[in-house]
Amino acid sequence: MAALQDREIAIRIFRACTELGIRSVAVYSEQDKMHMHRLKADEAYLIGKGLPPVQAYLNIPEIIKVAKDYDIHAIHPGYGFLSERADFAAACRNAGIVFIGPRSETVERMGDKVAARKAAEEAGVPCVPGTSGPVKDLNEAREFCDKHGFPVIFKAAFGGGGRGMRKVNNASELDEAFARATSEAMAAFGNGALFLEKFVERPRHIEVQILGDKEGNVVHLYERDCSVQRRHQKLVEIAPAPKLDLKTRDKMTACAVKLMKHVGYENAGTVEFLLDEKGNFYFIEVNARLQVEHTITEEITGLKADEAYLIGKGLPPVQAYLNIPEIIKVAKDYDIHAIHPGYGFLSERADFAAACRNAGIVFIGPRSETVEKMGDKVAARKAAEEAGVPCVPGTSGPVKDLNEAREFCDKHGFPVIFKAAFGGGGRGMRKVNNASELDEAFARATSEAMAAFGNGALFLEKFVERPRHIEVQILGDKEGNVVHLYERDCSVQRRHQKLVEIAPAPKLDLKTRDKMTACAVKLMKHVGYENAGTVEFLLDEKGNFYFIEVNARLQVEHTITEEITGIDLVQSQIHLAGGRLLSELGLTQDKIGIQGCAIQCRITTEDPAKEFQPDSGRLEVFRSGEGMGIRLDGASAYAGAIISPYYDSLLVKVIAQSTNLQAASAKMNRALREFRVRGVKTNIPFLLNVLESQKFQSGIIDTYFIDEHPELFHLTPSQNRAQKLLIYLGNLLVNGPMTPLGTPLAPAEIDPKRDDVPGGEPPPLGFRDILLKEGPEGFAKAIRNHKGVLLTDTTFRDAHQSLLATRVRTYDLLRISPFVAHNLQNLLSLENWGGATFDVAMRFLHECPWERLESMRKLIPNIPFQMLFRGANAVGYTAYPDNVIYKFCELAVSSGMDIFRIFDCLNYMPNMLLGIDAVGKAGGVIEAAISYSGDVSNPSRTKYDLNYYLKLADELVKAGTHILCIKDMAGLLKPRAAKILISALRDRHPDIPIHIHTHDTAGAGVATLLQCAEAGADVLDVAVDSMSGMTSQPSMGAVVASLQGSDLETGMDLKSVSKYSAYWEQTRTIYAPFESALTMKSGNADVYENEIPGGQYTNLQFQAFSLGLGHLFEDIKKAYKEANILLGDIIKVTPSSKVVGDLAQFMVQNRLSASDVLDRAEELSFPKSVVEYLQGTLGTPHGGFPEPLRSRVLKDMHRIEGRPGASLPALNMDALKVDLVDNFGRLVRDTDVMSAALYPDVAKDYFHFRETHGPVDKLETRIFLVGPKVGEEFEVSIERGKTLAFKALAIAEKMTKKGEREVFFELNGQLRSVFIHDKTAVQEVHLHPKAQKGVKGSVGSPMRGSVLVVRVKEGDTVEKGAPLIVLSAMKMEMVVQAPIAGVVKKIAVTPDMKLEADDLILELEPK
């Protein structure tokens, strides 16, 4: 559903959609790109580019087009703009889109105020005297005024909101008022029509809300008073209308319903009346839409302090808030009459209540005697027994020592539970399952209770299995009256900390409720309880309940009781403390009822994925969820706030209220998804899993719910994309480029132009449609049967690999992809994947090659994709286990790959056969490629003669290839040789399609391709003109133009090719830092001598010049030729070409001739690639390895016989995935596992980068490479319909003590900042070392906190799970355990040391 509004109503609509499970879509004008509504929708799209905002939102054709393009089924017009335009409602209907509002006929009749007035008169509804239609001119206006007298009022006929309205007091004002109202109405509604009516003096403006359905049923939702206005603009609205006579209300609402039934009104609308001082009311208009003021049945309140004073100067925070004398002093000094203790700290301390009373200060809570009796859980238990309330077996007082605890356990058995005697909230509680756990549990619970409440006393009781935790809210007054406000279910707990609470308790038997609430009241009357308190029970599976404690204070979860009863508990506390009686407050039991259901979720700064470890730090971002039925109770959550480790981890409470548990859950779910909290971990992902659990939705929950549902911890982490991008951008601004740049040239500041394609229309049919229908064999037949020559475009891979160091990013490929799909559909294929692109994508571009493939496939569904596949090496540079090759092909096909150009760098058949089998089993098109070397037209070049190629072709055809390819990677195939080779292949294999790949290094590429075509080749590889030539492929435009009008015509449109070329011509300038043309000004025919492959030629030259060795490039080329002969005149293509190149550079650097290399082979330290090649890691070259060089280099080193990968054990992909999930989270995909299998280190570095810096592939290329300029504004589309607006603001000059600089941005109109470590700073900054990720013996701190105890010393031997240290944070203690068995090598912490998350604790050396 789309919302056509830029205001709060759009957000209201989106929230409703989320609760109903409907995808929401925002539209926005250019000027509104920073508005919040755009961020609240699932998707957002720009409309009216270049238009002013109002014109943009009134552009009906474009709105309908966006709806069609993005599969939008319904449009809510909000209010204003098109909400009362009948033509828009009709346009929606005609386009098959639901208009959320009245039918277009009703909009036309009622949205036009004149027509609405006529309908009111027909229905017998009283109307103010007015014109029967729009005023034609000033003469007609004067006649009306002469008849009815002044004052009168002009009103816009086609809109409301006070625009187009002018009161006229006398004749002298008429002309000006007419002109101004007409102009305003035209600007606001696109129509300047006005009508005129008598102005009613001193009226109240009353409107009645109605709803109607398709069967003619209409109801009213009572009235609103909108009389507080200025210039007819409503400022304050009240519902219901105060002091409205009930008879008048009945008549007015009846008239509203009668009118709307008369016109057959559907959906929401408002009937507006003027009410004069005598009680007469007059119809004025119908608003055939939702009104701004529809919200006033929703209510939100908040309080802030008028004054604030410091306490406990110099003390730690907890001690400061427990400093009773100073608190009393502040109260006396500043004339404070009462103190509300809140919950926690001193709220259950009897001595504090007594201190207040003795100082003449009202303590808002129970009397000190009651606090002492009930705040102490042991005393409370005794009182419950006296009152006849059932109790769980437990100690009669605090446990003195471990011996007394053991005696209790011997008597009652396990499990038991320790509880703090002087506080709650789950702190100081430990369940003990058996005797071996008793000592540790007693120590930890005592320590926690002391830290939290200033008293470590504990009591012990029998642990009730599988209970529900039910608590009853009570209020008591000074005369002993006590009432209950029903119960809350607090069973969703972890470690006795309540996480989610529900009121009333779902599926609680009514008889049990009555007994439980009666017991609660009886107990509190027994102790003479005053003020607010809670009686807590455990309810077992049989319906038996047991008293556990009284909380003699307000509870954190009191909010949900307020929502279902409508009673403000805090105000009630204050009134009761002031001496008022419950009856005076209207709080008698018969008047307290339940309405609906409420849920409270506590958003805490804890990480559920790490055992709910508390987190602390700076809130980089805080944005809350709001809307109807949502209440937020929080105080310390705002962007920039520091979350301290000293207090409870609660950040904010979210309360949702609705008609039942399921509806309240939907509201809560929606609100939590709106939250954006960055800088600290939160439990929001966990809470969402709880809310979506079927068991929770059913209301069948107990305190075991979390423990028994491990799927609740299958968390979908927040993507945090915007914040991660800010970190990346901040790094660029502080430290410079994060991907190495090759030249001093800067990226051009240009937005390459491209033609738009028809929105929402699928592209024309292409060859992929044939492939999907006929399969690989039918596809091959279609190629052979095709008249003319087909083309493969290499621009998306080999062209930029050859010219721009493989640096072209997915961003720029995707921008032109729709144009390619719609205009170049006659291409046989797009070569867009494999080869070096796979490695470079992760290593330098920080993007996923699989996502590149999948994204392109979505945009280009009609043209087959083609990849370069290195046989047994896949897309790597080494041999892999066979199962990796087969799995790679399977994943590639499922991700969108079609044609696999399978080659081997030595034409080694066993390697190619593996690739052919893997591709065939995966369902891909097999294009077996023979790598070309030598010169078949030169009789003296006998090693790679025509028979060599024909024999290889025979073997490949026999192996089952669908297409046969000649891969001329260095551009050695001369035109005459091409004719000889292709003619022979065509004669030998008349039914197999032949595909030609060459490079244009020598400048003869086009001539070669034309000869191939004449000789019978079916498909030619070309690059678009602006990315062709030199070491790239021959020009697409040149080949297309050369074959026009011949039998071999390509069927390509030359104009489309030129437009395609223009895009890449501009885009290429953005990649200036990698431009090969900086050093390579033209092609060079000496390639026929040195035989350097195209991409390698560029790279070797580029490296030579960048190292200041450009004058030696000729020597490198000469050495390359010699190195090739030394190695046996081998086929040269990655990775064998790298072997030759490495040897050539080795020779130049060490000034070695070929004879030097051969003579000194036994003493030289050769490059690793040369040694491995001679060992046989790439396979066996044609004619065998060169001797005696091989023997001299290898001496007694291991030699591989046969196919290198045949002896490799299968890779355990499952174990690899488990390892990746452990390190990078549950979102690891199978394609990520494959990336790690092929490039272990590169992939893991990329995953770390992605985790830290987010989707940098979505940044425009200039910004990605060098970052924005300070003051620059730019946008980033992170997914369909989600666009972020950035502005770089400033970099702090001063560095922090941690060596960081604060970088300021504006993100979506809001100020944001990030702290970036300055790598260039000369200041020495001492930082605590971090644990090494992925090294299990490197033990890091799981949270921010303080070291309490170090349990081991260096040299100790520990078993897995042994306690290492005890940490304390947020009053919770945690034992850090050994992740592996080993010896303590180094300890990096000491007691009381403050640690950040991931700080190194110690290092273990595995056993």
Automatic annotation (TrEMBL):
Residues 117-314, 381-578 form the ATP-grasp domain. Keywords: ATP-binding, Biotin, Ligase, Metal-binding, Nucleotide-binding. The keyword Protease does not apply. InterPro entries: Aldolase_TIM, ATP-grasp, BC-like_N, Biotin_carboxylation_dom, Biotin_COase_C, Biotin_lipoyl, Carboxylase_cons_dom, CPAse_ATP-bd. GO terms for molecular function: ATP binding; biotin binding; metal ion binding; pyruvate carboxylase activity. Its cofactor is biotin. GO terms for cellular component: cytoplasm. SUPFAM superfamilies: Aldolase, Glutathione synthetase ATP-binding domain-like, post-HMGL domain-like, PreATP-grasp domain, Rudiment single hybrid motif, Single hybrid motif. The keyword Repressor does not apply. Residues 789-1058 form the Pyruvate carboxyltransferase domain. Residues 1-711 form the Biotin carboxylation domain. It is an enzyme of class 6 (ligase). One of its GO terms (biological process) is gluconeogenesis. CDD domains: biotinyl_domain, DRE_TIM_PC_TC_5S. It comes from the Eukaryota. Residues 1330-1405 form the Lipoyl-binding domain. Its EC number is 6.4.1.1. PANTHER family: PYRUVATE CARBOXYLASE (PTHR43778), PYRUVATE CARBOXYLASE, MITOCHONDRIAL (PTHR43778:SF2). This is pyruvate carboxylase. It comes from Darwinula stevensoni.
